[in-house]
Amino acid sequence: MPRSRDWGAPTAPTRNSRRCSGRSRPTSKARNPFCRRSRAVSTVWGRSPAGQRQTGGQGLFRADDNLESAYAKAALRQFYQLLYDRKVAGCSLGEFEDATGLELTDRDGSLREELPPITQFLNRVLALRIAMQNRLFAAFEEVLEARIEAAIAAGIYDVGIETLTAEGFWIAERRTVYTHASTGAETRCYRVLRKDRNRPLPPTEALALRATPGRLLINEQSHRAAVQVAAASLMHDDGRVVARTRLVRPMGRETVSLDEFGRSHWRPATRDRFAPLWEAECAQVPEFSESEFHIITGLLLPIWDRLPAENMRVYRFETDDGERVIGRLVTPEALASVYEGLGIETSPGLSPDEAWNAVINRGAALDLAGGLQIRRSMVMSMHRVELTGFTDGMVPQLKALGLTSEIIAWRLRLFVPVAADRGPALLSALLARHPLLRANPRTAA
Predict the structure, then answer these.
(1) With contact defined as beta carbons under 8 Å apart, do 423 and 416 qualify?
(2) In tens digits, what is the pLDDT along the chain, a chain of 445 residues?
């Protein structure tokens, strides 16, 4: 008889199921193929929702990782890409979708931008046969461990609470967003001003990079200076290796592929041409730069489920007045959803620059007046900023603003150029005609 599949959340294991899932001596009797402990079940039973290791659990992943971490979510997205590229042994994309009921592709056959999250993935995989569970988790484990090891080797592995450092912090606005009914304890949202000292690379240190070895460059179009140094190659999820180079600039570093560098306007320069341009750019850098961010602090546990599911790290800092603050940072586009979940009617709006960064860097979707939506889409393995919800009559006006049109899978699609010198300005002009109604934070897989 075919086995019925329950797509609900896994129920707590009973005493009999625990006994059934443990090790037993070999027997000649037939055994239920579902009455064995798989790698997936070991993972879930061996860990708490927060990722803490439980004694006696035969967990799949290391103790310093958890299934809700940014590394696990990124690994799951890469795992989906491997499925799409037919690089998961023993399971094709079609078999995975048929077995789990999860849809990973759009109507045009490309991989979806919004993919099923880790909780839904675990829920569906736990309903599969043991052999399939083990195959899928073996592939997922390999991807996850590679990401964690790379982060540790690069010195960027997230070990917990992060301390923010800057020249100064000031709390510009305080707002109580929740009060516990029994204790009276409060949850507050702070708007914090941050001041950082700019430290451009001195010309003497820039010239010293030639010994690394490095090469002095000048951009013939913008007349800026840079030092070219070696950079590690990048390996894509499909195994392709991209050779890269790094450009050191007065206020930062930029890593580009050798192909992109070859198509740029950077050209070798002598020291006499290089030094004056570098010094002039350093002189134009202001002594300080200012920015702001929002942090939710105070009583967090009762409202934790109403805070964004992405970037769940906790941060701490100390203001210039000596006040110590610890809490969850909330991005500008997510703040409206947090306020709505807490029953607060008014929330800060997004500036055009904040809206652009939310889309291009964090994958947020912007709902605009007139039924339009701006979102980041994956088209031909490249991220594009797409406008959806338009009518045929709106196309000429939108194209006049600078949007580009393409016919993909017999369907007209409109895109905002992603170039830094065009995208933000075009979005600002679009928002002037179609005001922003709501920013929807992306739910990361």
Answers:
(1) yes
(2) 443 333 333 333 333 333 333 333 334 334 343 344 454 555 444 443 333 333 333 333 343 446 767 788 888 999 999 999 888 888 999 999 999 999 999 888 889 888 999 889 988 988 888 888 888 988 888 888 777 777 765 656 665 677 889 999 999 999 999 998 888 899 999 999 999 999 999 999 999 998 878 899 999 888 899 999 988 776 655 667 778 888 999 988 887 888 878 888 899 999 999 999 999 999 999 999 888 889 999 988 888 888 887 667 788 999 999 999 999 988 877 787 788 788 877 666 777 888 888 888 778 888 888 889 998 887 765 678 899 988 888 888 898 888 888 888 888 899 988 776 678 888 888 988 888 877 877 644 3
Max intra-chain CA distance, the chain? 85
> pTM (2 decimals)?
0.50
Structure tokens at 311: 């970037």
Beta-bridge mates of residue 375 = 386
* DSSP helix/strand/coil, 79: helix
